Structure formats: C-alpha cells, structure tokens
Automatic annotation (TrEMBL):
Protein name in the entry: 2-methylisocitrate lyase-like PEP mutase family enzyme
InterPro entries named in the record: ICL/PEPM (IPR039556), Pyrv/PenolPyrv_kinase-like_dom (IPR015813), Pyrv_kinase-like_dom_sf (IPR040442)
Lineage: Bacteria, Pseudomonadati, Pseudomonadota, Alphaproteobacteria, Sphingomonadales
UniProt keyword annotations, A-Z: Lyase
Highest taxon of source: Bacteria
Organism: Novosphingobium taihuense
GO molecular function: oxo-acid-lyase activity
SUPFAM superfamilies: Phosphoenolpyruvate/pyruvate domain
Keyword Lyase on entry: yes
Amino acid sequence: MANPILREKLNSGKFFVVPGIQDMITAVIANKVGFDIVYGTGYWLTASAWGLPDAGIATYTEMRNRMETLARTSNAAVIADGDTGYGGLLNVHHTVKGYEASGVTAIQIEDQEFPKKCGHTPFKRLISTEDMVEKIQVAVDSRTSEDFVVIARTDARESEGLDGVLRRLEAYSKAGADVLFPEALHSEEEMRKACAVLDKPCMANMSNHGKTPVPPAEVLAEIGYAYAIYPSLTSLAACAAMEKVLRDLKDNGVGQPDGLFDFSEFCSLIGFEDVWAFEKKWGKAG
C-alpha cells in the first residue's frame, strides 16, 4: 500500500531530502537516523546484489524482489527506480502493478530505449516523446491508489539539450506525471530554468561526481526543487570506508580499527532481539 506521506510532502511545498539505499544494511541505518522517505536506487541495488552495472541487465523480477525487500525492511516510504518500465506498454502496466503491490510508494520511469543506461554515463538512446507519453498514461492508469506517485524522467540533456528536456517534460506533465525528473543537467543555471518553466514538482538527482552540481540543500530549495535524491552518497561513503579498513588489514594487520559501528546495536537494528525472544520462549536446552 502506497504511503500518503510523499504526496503530503509534495503538497506542502517544503523541500526535503531523500537518501539512496543500496542494500538492507543501509536501510536499517536509515531507519535509525529517522528518514521518512528513501530512494530505491537501481544503480546501487543492482551493484550490491549482483556486482553488475546499471545497464538494463537486472530483470523486472529481480528488481521487484529488491524493491519489495526494501519496502519490508525500511520504515520509510520507498521511491523506486523503475528504469524504462522494463519494455513496452504492457510491461509498464505490469511493472506499476507489481511495484505497487510490493509496497513502494512511487515509481520513476525514464524515456530511454530498453535496455537503459545509467543517466550519468554515455551512449544513452531515447524513445520518442510520443512513446513516452503513452508510457506515462499507462502508468497513471495502472495504479490502484492515488497515493502512488508516478515520476517521469527524461535523459534528453545529452542528445537534445536543455530545450529538449523541457519540451519532453512538458509533454510528460500533460500525460499525467506527478513529478518531473530532468536528469543530468549540467549547471545551476539549467536547474533554475527547469524549475521555473515546468508546472509540476521537480526532483533533483544529486549523483556525487556525476554531471550535475551538488549544491547544499538550502540552495536546491531556493532553486525551486521539490526534493532531491542522493543515490550514491551512502554507497560511495561505504566504499571509501571499506577500502580503508581492508588496506589497513592487508598492509598492517589491523583487525580492530577505531570508528566501527557497534556490533550489539547492529544486532538490535537487524532484528536479533526478536530471534532471541523466540528462542527464550520456544528453544529447548540440550
């Protein structure tokens, strides 16, 4: 069941930030910190589960399973990366139905050809505006709850420039998209123009070391975005930390470095206390 909190936040007009979640360890840490909306990132959920690039290799079934697991693990509403809808119009219908049944609150669909590419990598190819308009119309028609949010993303900046981005998103807005996603803009000037021209809430993708600047949240709010996702933030931070401790282990034999997360607390976060309570009630000694 879609969580109404996302629509409530969009209607409030107050800017908010949404962390990307690459695995269920990140999900329980986000629970601890207290985020009420999180982003199921296709790039990093694919990387963490299968060690594969975000290039349309993971299937709908695999990604639905990852999103369903995230929705179950997280206390927050989940915005889910739905790639291209995994095919044509019937695939989009099936994907929206499946994602909504899995417990996510929003789906993001992009206008690339299938299989897609990461928005901050080269060689992206787009479908026509008309074909994407139909995908958005099908997505909107396929949802069962008005709390379920449809996000339309365009990757047109690389091939059609900012004017192409705006033309496409205007068409996607008319098709019924709730949120507009101008991917991989190149400057704050472009970001400001998009937010000023478009008539629906716009989201920003703060992909660290990608094509788009990553200004502070207060600047994004002033630019006019409704919210920003940070899909790579936790993943790149974790990669840096893991490389450091692994190098210290390999080079210096350090197996108990300073700064580790408390193991007992993590056992609690992941649900071991419920297991121990069950064992205490039902376990048999010997």
